[in-house]
């Protein structure tokens, strides 16, 4: 029996990277999937390869959120799973942080998470069947880092939001949890960091390797499974032991 047979998932920022890996894994587990991304062409390309639905989504625009959720519910008959994966990353010295960068990161990383959760939860509550919501936090949300103050702050907010939503929505049978990845080898990190920087990061980890998208997939499938039915408001660190090497 496939673990997600008959379930319906909406994944934000899923045209590439971890989000796309989730989409591929869920389809293999019998789940219907809607890939939502601000880049519709990329979402359509990704979706066509796995038999998923592609939707346009700007998580900073409430009208876009409402339209995306309505389209996902209509095309799949409802939403059982929401993965809040869409996020932005920017680095800067404290004295170089701009108001525009601050506003943009909080609008996407925190506002997008909150208002997508709200929109999807309303439908889950109306159907009365419960559901699962997973937010992509980060180990950066557990500590400050010298060059990514705003990103760290947004992910700390995601952690707090997960805890609050987990407590608030469980009365409706909706479990809300988060995954906090450590350094993960994706297309984005390959672009942002050179080989020397990646070697430094890798050597700082207890497991001595960067995380992979498969590591995140396994953690997410656990949180969606019946094995995690008594788990809510939790932050699952998938970080190669980085937390314990601080």
SSE topology sketch:
Blueprint: E1 8-12, H1 17-28, E2 32-37, H2 40-48, E3 53-56, H3 62-76, E4 81-84, H4 99-127, E5 131-136, H5 149-169, E6 174-181, H6 187-192, H7 195-204, H8 213-224, E7 235-238
Parallel strand pairs: 1-2, 1-4, 2-3, 4-5, 5-6, 6-7
Helix pairs in contact: 1-8, 3-4, 4-5
Characteristic terms for this protein:
single chain; 246 residues; alpha/beta
Write a structural description:
The chain is an alpha/beta fold.
Number of discrete helical segments: 8
**Which segments are poorly predicted (pLDDT under 50) over 5 or more consecutive residues?**
none
CATH topology: Rossmann fold
CATH class: Alpha Beta
- Share in β-strands: 15-25%
Largest sheet: 7 strands, parallel
Envelope shape: globular
CATH architecture title? 3-Layer(aba) Sandwich
Q: Could you tell me how far the N terminus lies from the C terminus, measured between alpha carbons in angstroms? A: 41 Å
* Average pLDDT rating: 91
Query: What is the spatial order of strands in the main beta sheet?
Result: 3-2-1-4-5-6-7
- Rounded to an integer, what's the Rg over CA atoms? 17 Å
